[in-house]
Amino acid sequence: MFGKLCKYEFKSIGRTLVPIYLAVIAISILNAFLGMGSLANGYYNGLMSGLSFGRGFLSLIQTLSVIAYFGVLVAMSVLTLIVVIQRFYKGLLCDEGYLMFTLPVKPWQLITAKGVVAFVMSMASSLVAFASIFILVLGTAGTSRVFTAITDPQLWNAINSALAHVSTWPLLMFEFIILIIVSGLVQLYHMYFSMALGHLASKNRVMMSVIAFIAISMLFSFINGLVMIILGNVPSFQSFFRMIDTMPDTQGISLVMHLTFIGSVVYNAIQLAIFFFGTERILSKRLNLE
């Protein structure tokens, strides 16, 4: 049943976001040939050199294509956020919630499906943005120059040399990926928890959700600062970091990065647990769809 919930969410979100993904890629390709790419390389300068009207028309197309690209890119980011919020709010806290909570699933499964699909689609939006930028780079610098730079042996020798000094780089990469996933889910469930709290109010629920979001952000910022101050004054931590200073550069940097990633994962995991189970408890015990 959980798989069906995810499939339903993907279809619902995909109907809105996939067209704009295609629009971003299409406008990126257009810009690579008519917009930023032609502005940088002068692809059509020779062709239009004797045609004053043609040069003006091409300049207009270039300008419009650049504006359209940035407009669609911003629209994709904003629309992704709006759709993520809307799917949770309307799907579980409004009229659609009457249907969703009659399904033979637990509230935590509904919340998990919303979060997983929202995270995947958010990552998809980021990948589309990255792909569009790469297309623009190809158009601006030229395909041959880009691939020559990417396949340059000196570049890869430098990368291999740097990685050779950090023997634990696969573990660091794994920790970094886990941190991205956990921190991304924290941002989503922070919004979900805020909406669930705001929905406890009898009126002005949207405004109360915004207030809850801001209040939670301020609370965790205060806690984070307080913990850093306390740890900074603990003698054992001071001794530990003095010990790191005596280690070889690569070992010390590697250890600090491991501690930073692991500490961040733990901190974000605690927040994720609070937001997830807080949302689940509210939807299970205090849900009010009126």
What would a concise description of this structure say?
The chain crosses the membrane at residues 20-40, 60-85, 116-138, 169-189, 210-232, 252-277. The protein is mainly α and 290 residues long.
Spell out the key features of this protein.
2 domains; flat; 87% helix; mainly alpha; 0% strand; 290 residues
What would you say this structure looks like, in words?
The chain folds into two domains: 1-151, no CATH class; 152-290, no CATH class. The chain is mainly α and 290 residues long. α1 (2-34) runs antiparallel to α4, α6 (107-141) packs across α7 (143-150) and α9 packs parallel to α12. The chain has helices at residues 2-34, 36-41, 45-48, 52-92, 95-100, 107-141, 143-150, 153-164, 169-198, 205-232, 235-245, 249-285. It has twelve helices and no strands. Helix content is 87%, strand content 0%. Keywords: Membrane, Transmembrane, Transmembrane helix. The chain crosses the membrane at residues 20-40, 60-85, 116-138, 169-189, 210-232, 252-277.
